[in-house]
Design goal:
Helix 9 packs parallel to helix 12. A seven-stranded mixed sheet has the order 1-9-8-5-4-2-3, sandwiched between helices. Strands 7-6-12 form a three-stranded antiparallel sheet, with no helix packed on it. Strands 10-11 form a two-stranded antiparallel ribbon. It folds into two domains: 236 residues, Aspartate Aminotransferase, domain 2 (3-Layer(aba) Sandwich), CATH 3.40.640.10; 114 residues, Aspartate Aminotransferase, domain 1 (Alpha-Beta Complex), CATH 3.90.1150. With 361 residues, the protein is α/β, with parallel strands linked by helices. The protein starts with 6 loop residues before the first helix and ends with a helix. The structure holds pyridoxal-5'-phosphate.
Length: 361
């Protein structure tokens, strides 16, 4: 059996260092906003070439706090891709704002910059660009639109740790880059965790307050904040894993190349272009008979996954919220996409085996 992903195997190379890190944290007696969080924030900021990183409790919170920092008027509109993971849309709703969905490019699965302007209104305040599957969005046209209409840019980097567009790290283009360290992500913790990066020192101060009850100084509250802190134990684990993030990404890129070189053309493979340094959080293909293919692979001992089976506008929770229902590109992706094994613990032989069986479909 080739699993889609086994987190125990992915984390196995780090067990000893994790245990040491845990022991040190336990012994320190300091469990919230201590040295580990400060250290990881510095390391991750350096990795991304960003001046500020603020650890928070999850990727969803990273998105929510980023929006909160702008304090947009209620009912302001935020542009978001129609095929994103639901969390991006939830962050907009939790801030009392209105998500405006824009279809993706069928080649890149990321927001189609040519479809953004038609969705901009007087109330549009921000664009949330999601670097889905570990592929950066086409940033140049998105940045041009943000400048032209004076919109804030927030990047959802939950799937793009270390991915680059024109040699620049995702997360560093907008006002904020929001990261998740959910265990399956390329940089995954052993529980929930997230962070926000920003070039703007004042926004960094706002986020530090927002994550901690609106406070800089204990018991003095500057604004209406949250409790959304990266915890010391997870920060310790993340420092261990960050040292191997490039190795993880390079491993995934090497496995992706084996797919590109050997999978037959019946399967629609991810788009590649020299401007994009993709980190393959997910390696998807598309096929008309996706469900049959998935069953066939399972019968032959290969587990796959689907990201995602249901588009946001068809989710029950969104029934009365996303009233526009015409998203054919999104629906096409959700109907045909299949995610293949590509984790840090998969070997080149595993991938060759997947390809051999797929090519007989
Ligand atoms: C995982 C993910 C999130 C949410 O991250 P959590 O840490 O699970 O809250 C947000 N956006 C995208 C695109 C994701 O993949």
């Amino acid at each position: 059996m080739i699993e889609y992903e086994n987190l125990r195997s992915v984390n196995k190379p780090f067990f000893e260092e994790y245990i040491k890190s845990f022991k040190d944290t336990l012994e320190s007696g300091w469990y919230i906003l201590g040295e580990n969080v400060k250290k990881f924030e510095n390391e991750f900021a350096n990795y991304l070439n960003s001046p500020n990183c603020i650890g928070v409790a999850s990727g969803l919170d990273a998105l929510i706090l980023s929006l909160k920092a702008f304090d947009f008027e209620k009912e302001s509109e935020v542009i978001v891709p129609s095929n994103t993971y639901i969390a991006t849309i939830l962050s907009i709703l939790h801030c009392g704002l209105k998500p405006v969905l824009v279809e993706p490019d069928i080649r890149t699965y990321n927001i189609d910059p040519t479809r953004i302007e038609e969705k901009i209104s007087q109330r549009t305040k921000a664009i949330m660009a999601v670097h889905l599957y570990g592929k950066p969005c086409e940033m140049d046209p998105i940045l041009n639109i943000c400048n032209k209409y004076n919109l804030k840019l927030i990047e959802d980097c939950a799937q793009s740790h270390g991915a680059k567009y024109k040699n620049k790290m995702t997360g560093t283009f907008g006002a904020f880059g929001a990261f998740s360290f959910y265990p399956t992500k390329n940089l995954g913790a052993l529980g929930d965790a997230g962070s926000i990066i920003t070039n703007d020192a004042n926004l960094a101060i706002a986020i530090r307050r927002l994550r901690n009850y609106g406070s800089d100084l204990k018991y003095y509250n500057e604004l209406i904040g949250f409790n959304s802190r990266l915890d010391e134990v997870q920060a310790g684990f993340l420092s261990v894993k960050l040292k191997k993030l490039d190795a993880i990404n390079n491993h995934k890129r090497k496995l992706a190349q084996i797919y590109f070189d050997n999978l037959k053309d019946d399967f629609i493979k991810p788009h590649i272009d020299k401007n994009f340094f993709d980190v393959y959080h997910i390696f998807n293909i598309r096929h008309e008979k996706r469900d049959d293919l998935k069953d066939y692979l399972l019968k032959n001992g290969i587990k796959t996954d689907i990201h995602y089976p249901v588009p946001p506008h068809k989710q029950k929770a969104m029934k009365e919220i996303i009233t526009e229902k015409n998203f054919p590109i999104s629906e096409e992706i959700h109907r045909t996409t299949l995610s293949l094994p590509i984790s840090y613990s998969h070997t080149e032989d595993d991938i060759s085996k997947v390809i051999e069986i797929m090519n007989m479909f």
